Description:
Layout: E1 3-6, E2 9-15, E3 21-26, H1 32-43, E4 64-67
Antiparallel strand pairs: 1-4, 2-3
Amino acid sequence: xxxxxxxxxxxxxxxxxxxxxxxxxxxxxxxxxxxxxxxxxxxxxxxxxxxxxxxxxxxxxxxxxxxx
Length: 68
């Protein structure tokens, strides 16, 4: 299983008409591979488990990582 890891900015948190909640994140331009993995997950209609960790200070290394 592939773990997708990327530093992102929270763009929007909204409540939907049916009572659900939608989160929108902005990712860096370097997150192309992570985006491709997420698109494949969406195409396969697979659910995901999210863990969100606040980042106090931006890391010196690349924002975007994929762990296999």
